[in-house]
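TICKET #2291
ISSUE: user wants both folds in one file
ATTACHMENT 1:
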Amino acid sequence: MNIGIVGGSLEGILLSLQLAPHHDVTVFELDAEIGTPAWHPGYIVNPGLLDDFLTNEQRSFLLLKQCADGWGMRWEWLMKHLTIVAAQRGVSLRTRTRILQSSRDGEYIVVETSSNETSQPSILSFDRLINTQTAHQKPGGLHHSMNPEHTTDYPFEDSITWFGGILSHQHLPSPVPLSPELILPRSDNLTELWWNSEEYWTPEEGYIEEIRISLPKDKSNVSFDAMYQKTAEFLHYLTEIEEIV
């Protein structure tokens, strides 16, 4: 089958990796690079899950470090390397590309896209169109425009606003005020602090980087492990209900 995936989220990339051995898969992403900037906590419980995707050399870029809740890591490098693996496995990555509209042509879904620097076609047909767009604001407020009747939507959970801050280990107090939901150290001498409320601590010297993002309230559902499991369940649904094999 010819399958289009809308949105270069982790869910979209994981689905593309699992579908690519049996189907022609295209991922559409508005940004120039998938996974940058990293709008997500660098959090994994079982790094062994990465063995199916990354080499030891690629894993070294993640700067994994064990912590109370599992392991901290650099999420942007996880996304970069998963994207590289997707391309190596035959996934077509259409970055800096916006879907302008969708229509039906018999059994096929036809999408018209914006043009970019490449000579790729702007009109494509798919057997299935899977929507894995997240709610993050894109540059210029751009978004994909599709008829909802033409897509199978990924079942994202209800979300709330999280606040995240990155700071040096040397500026990390013990205990951290206002009890972060996640404390994620990395082996580059930096730590991510995450709160799932509007009450959070700010160090006197400030954070190296601050992030506000919509995520599931329960911290266990923001780990790579939980997202990997949910994409596997969604793929099973596609196999059973949508007859994607």
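ATTACHMENT 2:
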Amino acid sequence: MGNGSSRAVRHAVVAVGSLVFALGAVAPLVVRRSAGMWFLVGAGMLVGTALVVGARVLDSRDARLRQPRSVDAVVRLTSDQALRGVTARVPLTARPLCPGCGGGGRRRRRACWRCLGTGLGAVGRLTREIKVPAGVRHGATLTVPGSGAPGGRGRSDGDLRLSFRVGNEGTPSHDREPHRQDRPRPTPQRTPYRSEAKPQPRNPVTVHNRKRDTEFTVTASGIVVRDEMRSHTGARWRTRLALRWEEIADLGFDYGSHDSVVSLWAVCTDGSPRRPVADARALTGAQWEELALAARTLSNGRIRIDLTRLDATGILRDT
């Protein structure tokens, strides 16, 4: 049944079911009572009830599907990304359009057997690319119309409601510093508060490459490099490199053994061959400065990355 005629047909089914139920209820009053009569009366009332209930269930399902479903998602940004603006890839869980009918719900004038006429497939992971405006603050929200769950069968898509988290691992950025009245005040007989303040907890720093399919994380225990692996079942992250600070003797930029591309290499303390961390062109200069500062701070000053090697001359592989 088509989308337009299906409601009229269900209304007719409700009327027929109600009539059958009424005839079954009135039959004992006008027909001579017998064992067979009671069986017909019961069967007629059951059939009428089933028709009415079934039609009402289908009506409620269609009413629910006609409403576009909005999706909530959280977008985590660094302070630099929030200041400049970025195109973020937002994953969400929803039912995509049916690949069999393309979301129409019908194939060759019949209801699609894969989605049972709903126009939607099985629940899976979808990815939306959203343009984040520059200057977004921690805790801000943004509603993107038509970027939520797909509608199917010609229905409009739902909205995507975004909530932004600025900073590393949920740490507030400079825009979210506590109000001056909430800060501890120094006492007159003691030295100024800033000179006695204990160092703040050092948080991990995570940056992504230009394609946003590789992330580099510097933590208090070491460095981790992960790559995004995509397949027909979705995307997942695979750890390519994980080294603790005690395993690293040095981090520096150098050429590879068989190419002239400058990369960041990790020299291990156990004497094993050096490990490639990242191509120098994978990150921007500001991102390398952020990683170098995090490596020096979180390794207690033992590991220092010489950023002057970023400008080393050489013949790039793609030229």
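RESOLUTION: both attachments delivered.
EXTRA DETAIL ON ATTACHMENT 2: The chain has five helices and 14 strands.
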